Amino acid sequence: MNKTTGAWGEEVAKRLDAMVALRRDFHRHPELSFQEKRTSEIIAERLTRAGLEVKTGIAGQTGVVGILRGDKPGKTIAWRADIDALPLTEILDAPFTSGTKGVMHACGHDGHTAIAITAAEIFSARRAEMPGTAVFIFQPAEELLSGAKPMIEAGVLENPRVDEIYGLHLTTQDAAGTVNVRRGPTMASGDGFNVEVTGKGGHGAYPHLSVDPMTAAAHILIGMQSLVTKEVAAKETVVLSVGQIMAGTKNNIIPDKAVMRGTLRTFDMDVREQLLGRLQSFVSDMARAYRAEARLDLTMGCPPVINPEKETDLVRRCCVDELGEAAVVEGSPVMASDDMSLFLRARPGCYFRVGISPTGDRRVPHHAPEFEMNEDGLPVGLRVALSVLRSRLGA
Ligand SMILES: [Zn+2]
Ligand SMILES: [Zn+2]
User: Fold this and answer.
1) What is the mean pLDDT of residues 324-344?
2) Active-site positions?
3) What mean pLDDT is reported for the chain?
4) Which of the two ends of the chain, N or C, has the fewest CB atoms closer than 10 A to its terminal CB?
5) Are strands 179-180 and 328-329 parallel, antiparallel or unpaired?
6) Nearest listed ligand to the Cα of residue 83
7) CB-CB contact of 239 with 211 (8 Å)
8) Closest ligand by atom to 82 CA
9) Distance 110 CA to ligand 2 centre (A)
10) Cβ neighbours for 369, distance < 8 A, ≥ 6 positions apart
């Protein structure tokens, strides 16, 4: 990559080592959702030192916002970064490998945080020539899809009133050096559900004297798949997966209860509503057919990420100006979810992806102990962040 292409190459090259060191520090000290104490302290400390107005203790304890008012008039533009890690034990052997057993930055949020802090520091140093107001939002608990909502409820888009919001997600699905900008549906909705089936326990030898909740649960599980294929138009994209089934203590005891946990994802709000509404009655009706009872509870939820055309085209233009046409791709939507969608339902903007794939054909998955970031993607992300913010602040 030619570091001097575009307006920000040189500036970013100067800050690169510090940004990578910051990312590695967050990587070494990962913190789970809503427990990002050390992380948020460092964010607040860095932003304060850079001269931003800093608000802490948002969304529980760990959300941070830094406000930077430029000396020239302009819009108010927000940049959102998520800061939490995942409950995994890292297998990578590096000096900055997670020092906390069972916790790991396996989604790249350490990189998001380092990029956003560095962008704030760069703009702060250029405040005299900066138009508008930049609002840097550091959100906890994205991995639970639970951090954006309380941040918005705390008024982070209102005071000052944000006109537009942007953000990026690093991805191992794209090569380092590329940016993936997509109009329209980009990431799926994500709703978690619990199905609790209640029967009547007893001896495995005499099932006719019991009400077996596991048999009912098994039929509910298969039936939910049929619901997707038979009640949703074939052109729609829906995934319904059950990831946990919990029941029983011994091979010859029929238990009282069976619990299933799963996730429902789609790109269309109407389909989402249709299925969430239908699942309630479907689950209880199916259980009743087996003389059991069942209840469905939703445990988390966020709508799909849908990038509006105008702002997405503006981001694309910034990326091309900064990196050149060849570095900018428009990939397919992904079934992963991100509660950035809530910010984008509240304000126009764009959420795009920046490649961090390790070199060669190797594709390591996110949310896995072997996750690994090609740090060559970090300066690309920072350059694009600076370019988007600068252009929207002054627009
Ligand atoms: Zn994630
Ligand atoms: Zn993520």
Assistant:
1) 95
2) 84, 142
3) 95
4) C
5) parallel
6) 2
7) no
8) 2
9) 10
10) 88, 89, 90, 91, 104, 106
Distance (Å) of CA 321 to CA 4, 174, 224, 287, 314: 12, 20, 47, 58, 11
Which of 171, 191, 164, 38 lies closest to 100, judged by CA? 38
* Ligand 1 mean position, distance from CA 320 (Å): 27
Range list of β-strands (E), 267-361: 293-302, 305-307, 328-329, 349-357
Span 136-181, pLDDT tens digits = 999 999 999 999 999 999 999 999 999 999 999 999 999 999 999 9
Cα(306) to ligand 1 centroid in Å equals 18
DSSP character string of 166-215:
EEEEEEEEEETT-EE--SEEEE--EEEEEEEEE-B-EETT-GGGSB-HHH
- Order of strands, sheet of 328-329, starting from the edge strand that comes earlier in the sequence: 53-58, 63-69, 131-139, 72-82, 164-175, 349-357, 179-180, 328-329
* pLDDT range class, residue 362, cuts 50, 70, 90: confident
Beta strand pairing call for 293-302 and 63-69? unpaired
Chain-centroid distance, C-alpha 270: 22
Where residue 347 falls (left for φ over 0; alpha for ψ -120 to 50; beta otherwise) is beta
Using the Cα atoms of residue 172, residue 175, residue 177 and residue 179 in order, give the sign of their dihedral. negative
> Is residue 62 classed as helix, strand or coil in its secondary structure?
coil
pLDDT digits (tens, 9 = 90+) for 300-316: 789 999 999 999 999 99
Beta pairing class for 293-302 and 190-198: antiparallel
- Compute the distance from residue 349 Cα to the ligand 1 centre, in Å: 21
Ligand nearest to the CA of 81: 2
H or E segment and range at residue 68: strand 63-69
Number of DSSP helices (H) and strands (E) in the chain, helices first? 9, 16
In contact, 222 and 289? CB cutoff 8 Å:
no
Residue 339 has pLDDT above 60, yes or no: yes
How many A from CA of 86 to the centre of ligand 1? 8
